[in-house]
Write a structure and sequence with these properties.
Elements (H helix, E strand, L loop, with lengths): L1 E6 L6 H9 L4 E8 L3 H8 L7 E6 L4 H4 L5 E4 L15 H18 L4 E4 L4 H14 L8 E3 L2 H14 L12 E3 L6 E3 L12 H12 L1 H9 L7 H18 L4 E8 L4 H12 L4 E9 L2 E5 L8 H26 L2
Parallel strand pairs: 1-2, 1-4, 2-3, 4-5, 5-6
Antiparallel strand pairs: 7-8, 9-10, 10-11
Bound molecules: 1,4-dihydronicotinamide adenine dinucleotide and oxaloacetate ion.
The site of 1,4-dihydronicotinamide adenine dinucleotide has 31 residues, from helix 4.
C-alpha cells in the first residue's frame, strides 16, 4: 500500500512519469496534481489496467487534498529551460512553486518522502528543507533532490564509448549537485571497471555534466529532457518505494548531509567541506536515507579536483535557496 502524489503531473515530465508510476504495481494510490489540464491526464492514465486508483486534483484549492495521506510526493512542477538559459535562470519562477508545494506537504503529510525534480535542484532542495524546518517537520532522511538522470546518462554515455558495456547494469556514482560542473561522475568508481583514456574521461565527464544542454538544444525552444527524466524519476521513485517496503536499495541523491553525519565525513574530506547538501550514494529504507554509502575507494585526482570545483558553485546555489526560503 503505497500512495504517491505527482505535483506538476500534466507537464512534459509529469505525464510520462505518472504513466510509469501507474505501471508500478507497488503503487496503490496515484494522486495527480497540476494547475492545468490534469483532469484529462488522470482520466487517460486511469484506464491503464493496473490495480492502483488514480485521482485528479486541479489548482491550489485542491492542493491540500492532493497531498493528504501520501507516502511520497514527486515534484516535477515548474518551468523548464530554453536554449541560452542556465538552470539557475529558472529559480525566479520555480523557487516559489516548490515552496508552496512543500508547505502543503508539510501541513498535510509531514512524514511523506519528498523527491524534488524541479530545477535548479541545487537550490530548490534547500528551499524545501527550510520550509520543512519552519513547519517543525524536517527530517533530513526524507528529502531528496532527484539526480538520477545524471546517473542514467553516465551509464548510457559510457556505453556510447564502449559497446561491450551493459548500460542497464553499469552504475557510475555521481556526486555533487545537478547543474554543469556541480555534477561529478566518479567513473573510476563504477560498478565494474571502465577502461578509458585520460582524454576520454575528460570528454565523458563534460558530456555528463552538460547532458541536459544536449536535449535543450535539440528541442530548440520546446523544453528540456522529459522522457529520459520520467524514466529516471520513475526509477528513483521505485527505489524509494522499495525502501518503504523494507528492501535495501542504493541510489545517489542530492540530500542534506545531516541525514547521516558520520557517513558524510568521507565526502566532506574529499571536498564537500561544510556544505549542508551534496549528492551522494545513499542506502534507502522505510526511514528514507538509512545511511550514506562509502565510495569504497579514493576517487582519481581528476575527480577530486572536480569535487572541489563543484563544492564552490554549490555553496552559492544552496545559499540562494536558503535565503529565498527565509525571505532574506
Ligand atoms: N532533476 C532533473 O534531473 C531534471 C529536472 N527538470 C526540471 O523539471 C521541471 C519540469 O520540467 P517539464 O516537465 O519539462 O516542464 P513543463 O512545463 O512541461 O511541465 C511543468 C508542469 O508544472 C506545472 N506547474 C506550474 N506551476 C505549478 C504549480 N504551482 N503547481 C503545480 N504544477 C505547476 C505546469 O502546469 C506544467 O504542467 C523543470 O523545472 C525542469 O528544469 C527537467 C529535467 C531533468
Ligand atoms: O537541462 C535541463 O534544464 C533539465 C535537466 O535538469 C537535465 O536534463 O538534466
Amino acid at each position: 500500500m503505497v500512495s504517491v502524489a505527482v505535483l506538476g503531473a500534466a507537464g512534459g515530465i509529469g505525464q510520462p512519469l505518472s504513466l510509469l508510476l501507474k505501471l508500478n504495481t507497488s503503487v496503490t494510490k496515484l494522486h495527480l496534481y497540476d494547475i492545468v489540464n490534469v483532469p484529462g491526464v488522470a482520466a487517460d492514465i486511469s484506464h491503464v489496467a493496473t490495480n492502483s486508483e488514480v485521482k485528479s486534483f486541479l489548482g491550489p484549492k485542491q492542493l491540500a487534498d492532493a497531498v493528504t495521506g501520501i507516502d511520497l510526493a514527486v515534484i516535477p512542477a515548474g518551468v523548464p529551460r530554453k536554449p541560452g538559459m542556465t538552470r539557475d535562470d529558472l529559480f525566479k519562477i520555480n523557487a516559489g512553486i516548490v515552496k508552496t508545494l512543500v508547505e502543503a506537504i508539510a501541513e498535510n503529510s509531514p512524514r511523506a518522502f519528498i523527491a524534488v525534480i524541479s530545477n535548479p535542484v541545487n537550490s530548490t532542495v534547500p528551499i524545501a528543507a527550510e520550509v520543512l524546518k519552519a513547519k517543525g517537520v524536517f527530517d533530513p532522511r526524507r528529502l531528496f533532490g532527484v539526480t538520477t538522470l545524471d546517473v542514467v546518462r553516465a551509464s548510457r554515455f559510457v556505453r556510447d564509448l564502449r559497446s561491450n558495456v551493459d548500460a542497464a547494469s553499469l552504475r557510475v556514482p555521481v556526486v555533487g549537485g545537478h547543474s554543469g560542473t556541480t555534477i561529478v561522475p566518479l567513473v573510476s568508481l563504477a560498478s565494474s571497471p571502465v577502461e578509458l583514456s585520460e582524454s576520454e574521461i575528460k570528454e565523458l565527464t563534460n558530456r555528463i555534466q552538460f547532458g541536459g544542454d544536449e536535449v535543450v538544444k535539440a528541442k530548440d525552444g520546446a523544453g528540456s529532457a522529459t522522457l529520459s527524466m520520467a524514466y529516471a524519476g520513475a526509477r528513483f521513485a521505485d527505489s524509494l518505494i522499495r525502501g518503504i517496503k523494507g528492501e535495501s536499495v542504493v541510489e545517489p541523491s542530492f540530500i542534506a548531509l545531516a541525514a547521516d553525519p558520520a557517513g558524510a565525513e568521507e565526502i566532506r574530506k574529499l571536498g564537500a567541506g561544510d556544505l549542508e547538501f551534496f549528492a551522494v550514494p545513499v542506502e534507502l529504507s522505510d526511514k528514507g536515507v538509512s545511511r550514506i554509502v562509502s565510495l569504497g575507494a579514493e576517487p582519481s585526482a581528476f575527480e577530486r579536483e572536480a569535487i572541489a570545483v563543484a563544492a564552490e558553485a554549490l555553496s552559492a546555489n544552496i545559499t540562494t535557496g536558503v535565503n529565498f526560503a527565509k525571505g532574506a
